[in-house]
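I am sending you the entry underneath: sequence plus fold tokens. Let me know what the token row says about the fold:
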Amino acid sequence: MIIKQKLELTWIGKEKRPKLEPRILLEGPEKSYHAKHRVSDNDIFDNRLIFGDNLLALKALEQEFSGQVKCVFIDPPYNTGSAFTHYDDGLEHSIWLGLMRDRLEVIKRLLSEDGSLWITIDDNEAHYLKVLCDEVFGRANFVANVIWEKADSPRNSARQFSNDHDHLFVFSKNPEWVPKKLARTEEANSIYSNPDNDPLGPWLPGDPYANKPYSKGLYSIVGPTGRVFSPPPGRFWRISEEKLRELDAKGRIWWGPTGAARPSIKRYLSEVGDLVPRTLWSKNDVGSNRTSKNEMRALFPGDSSFDTPKPEKLIERVINIATNPGDLVLDSFAGSGTTGAVAHKMSRRWIMVELGEHCHTLIIPRLKKVINGEDQGGISKTVNWQGGGGFRYYRLAPSLIVNDRWGNPVINPEYNAAQLAEALAKLEGFTYAPSETLWWQHGHSSERDFIYVTTQNLSAEQLQALSDEVGAERSLLICCSAFRGVSAAQAADRWANLTLKKIPKMVLDRCEWGHDDYSLNVANLPMAEVEQEDRTTTVDNAEPTKGKKASVADVAQVDLFDQSSGEDE
């Protein structure tokens, strides 16, 4: 009897999931940018650059873009134990796994049925991440572990091994997903030749034998010089004798330069298709870390703020394999903005998310250069990029619920009426779409189900008027500060086409309000006993922790961030 047991990762705090607030996005027209004129009919203007915490941003995108993203490429912090310029890449292992799990679950919902996820990672967390992705996506949806040669020279200063590669995990939304083939390269074509001046062009000799038994595959054949050929012991001819003689009559069998060699079936270059993607990506084909550094220096001379951006050719290959022109590409760890820049040049729609200030100082200037046609580095010449298109800049709205000076939860006073209506529509699962003619239609969930948001205290007379205007064939969810002259139970009996909810009580238990940063969410970790008999540990300017309980977060902050970088040149 075989006992099947489900294996999964466990870590401190795994059972704790954040109750994410699905915030709205606020456009900043002053930071959005578009070309002054169209360059081609394929120009795409409705790309999105989002400034804010990427987990909250993914949640903000979920309602509108669920099932629409064709390709997600992410380059998350590698958790090497080093503090980098734009983020702390040294989270305690358990925290890192939790942060990645929360993001992967939303990403899976955003992916289309024929979509795929691509994640770059190094050996510090690669094998844990693989098992984590197996849990979220299912083992059947694991496609490949691509090895990218990121270094173009060894690091002789390494204590043990020179780290020359990164992993690129590929997962699909469904196991039926098939990657697109890659265009043939000169290197792949170079092995074809034409020693006999065959009019069909260059060819490659194919093995005539097969290991699989074939009923018509055991025979002997006489070559042009009279030499007799038979399959080696345990092997068989790949085709029948009749088929071999037919191909020979057409000049598609090669007997060697003198006619005395074993027969080979010609495979013509003109008849072979594009290339199936391989799992080993050479720096010569897709670039290295040094390639990407040089690309950034060419765009921004003297700026070395990003040590390990990804080369444009690497992203180009991913997008070529995973998408078609017009498809939507998402990168929620935008970094230096390479994914958006490459997707833009390749006529794909894109969404990028970044929290760091370099969103404004690096990504936006880079995208402007792309749109203006001033960026002629990276893949620009390969795709004949001339500029065009544009993007819209958004920032995450502040939390909908805040506490007033007495500690009572209230609607954030920064919200105007339209923003409040949009936020409550999103929380209730409605599409925000204010009607130009019906003042009470702020959104819809179907052709007959609508939502109306107001901060007024509605009377029974007002509710009756609303009910009459909505009519028996439609339904309306009313979100209001209060209603008077009738109880909730009476309202439900009196107006069957209306549903009443009070603001903000209706949403208080829905989310973790006021949480703006999920990049280092250590507050919910349980306490752990830490033995400290031989030393005293001080966290920042706090009191020594000797002889008392310390949180896992305290230990992580002290032990994990004080390490040297493990990144390559």
Summary: The longest helix spans residues 93-110. The chain has 15 helices and 31 strands. Residues 401-507 form a domain with the Trna Endonuclease; Chain: A, domain 1 fold (CATH 3.40.1350).
